[in-house]
């Protein structure tokens, strides 16, 4: 009977809600596994771990809100060491959310992650854990993007502002490296459970300071990515709109008749022929003015030209005054005129 009762109690014991500290530790451990893995972040088993870690941390966040562990009216010294680590819940949620891979919901994911990071920074600012400037809110960033798009092309960068931002990044990088070096020194003692309360408290405060630097850097990257994603959405919407009706493509045509040719070129086109080849030939045939068209001349024509040339030569040889005078005039004319002078046959 006792065995039966113990058996019936085991399911109820298994359904007991997990403790708050266990939820945080599991979510934190899952983040470290995902952050240090060599597998692709888009792998299915990695995304399953990310989703599981987000679920654990979201449940822990609800429990912290119900227990009302933190108050804006208290100082950092008033927060117990065991409660300090729960300040990291929003930043771990933001880090895991940024590792989700879903292109269709990417803009929504980065917006949620930014809210987590900003919430973490506000709490750290209230407790004065570290000195830093809070980044702009989402509303201010959206307004800035709208103003830039309304004002046309962006203005040239301010070199002084760029140098200031660069110096701040270098300082944050140095702080992060120093903090991580101190964390590595005491982490082993905290994990073993042999560290005293002061070391454990320093461990959590150092983690908070490290994540402050990470959050500031992540918000800068998120703001840049949000601007790109917003512009991409605008381009997609504009491309999805119905485009203006386009004219149908011109059909190719072939000139087959004079009437078609006249309609295409118009009456005043410089190269438009006034008659066909057949009409031109018929017109010249009627006038008995047909050219030879490359047909070889008869032997009679050739003999007549040869006889005429021989007679001219004979007259010159017989001292024909008229022929001699023509020959002299021709020679004198060739001396004063270049060859081809007056030939306008091939000129344009």
Could you name the key traits of this structure?
mainly alpha, disordered N terminus, 348 residues
Largest sheet: none
Radius of gyration: 49 Å
Structural class: mainly alpha
Q: Runs with pLDDT <50, length 5+?
A: 1-11, 253-257
Contiguous helical run count:
13
What number is the mean pLDDT? Answer: 78
- Helix % is 55-70%
Explained architecture:
It is a single chain. By secondary structure, the chain is mostly helical. Helix content is 67%, strand content 0%. It contains 13 helices and no strands. Helix 3 packs antiparallel against helix 5 and helix 6 packs antiparallel against helix 9. The longest helix has 44 residues.
Any chance you could write out the topology, listing elements then pairs?
Layout: H1 2-14, H2 20-36, H3 44-67, H4 81-84, H5 89-98, H6 106-126, H7 138-150, H8 159-192, H9 197-240, H10 258-265, H11 277-286, H12 299-317, H13 321-336
Helix pairs in contact: 2-3, 2-5, 3-5, 5-6, 6-9, 8-9
């Amino acid at each position: 009977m006792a065995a039966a009762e113990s058996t019936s109690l085991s399911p109820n014991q298994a359904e007991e809600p997990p403790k708050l500290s266990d939820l945080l530790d599991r979510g934190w451990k899952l983040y470290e596994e995902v952050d240090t893995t060599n597998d692709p972040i888009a792998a299915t088993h990695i995304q399953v771990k990310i989703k599981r870690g987000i679920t654990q941390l979201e449940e822990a966040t609800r429990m912290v809100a119900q227990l009302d562990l933190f108050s804006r009216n208290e100082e950092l010294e008033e927060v117990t060491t065991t409660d300090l680590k729960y300040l990291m819940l929003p930043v771990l949620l933001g880090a895991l959310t940024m590792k989700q891979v879903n292109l269709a919901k990417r803009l929504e994911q980065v917006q949620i992650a930014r809210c987590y990071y900003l919430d973490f920074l506000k709490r750290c600012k209230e407790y004065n854990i570290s000195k830093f400037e809070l980044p702009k809110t989402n509303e201010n960033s959206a307004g800035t993007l709208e103003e830039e798009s309304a004002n046309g092309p962006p203005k040239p960068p301010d070199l002084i502002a760029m140098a200031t931002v660069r110096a701040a990044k270098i300082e944050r990088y140095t702080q992060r490296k120093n903090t991580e070096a101190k964390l590595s020194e005491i982490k082993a003692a905290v994990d073993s459970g042999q560290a005293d309360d002061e070391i454990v408290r320093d461990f959590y405060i150092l983690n908070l300071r490290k994540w402050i630097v990470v959050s500031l850097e992540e918000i800068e990257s998120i703001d840049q990515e949000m601007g790109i994603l917003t512009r991409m959405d605008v381009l997609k919407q504009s491309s999805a709109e119905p485009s203006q009706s386009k004219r149908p493509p011109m059909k190719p045509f072939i000139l087959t008749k004079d009437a078609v040719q006249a309609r295409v070129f118009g009456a005043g086109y410089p190269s438009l022929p006034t008659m066909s080849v057949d009409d031109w030939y018929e017109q010249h045939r009627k006038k008995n003015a047909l050219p030879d068209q490359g047909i070889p001349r008869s032997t009679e024509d050739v003999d007549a030209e040869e006889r005429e040339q021989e007679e001219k030569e004979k007259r010159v040889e017989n001292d024909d005054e008229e022929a001699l005078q023509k020959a002299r005039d021709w020679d004198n004319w060739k001396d004063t005129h270049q060859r081809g002078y007056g030939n306008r046959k091939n000129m344009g």
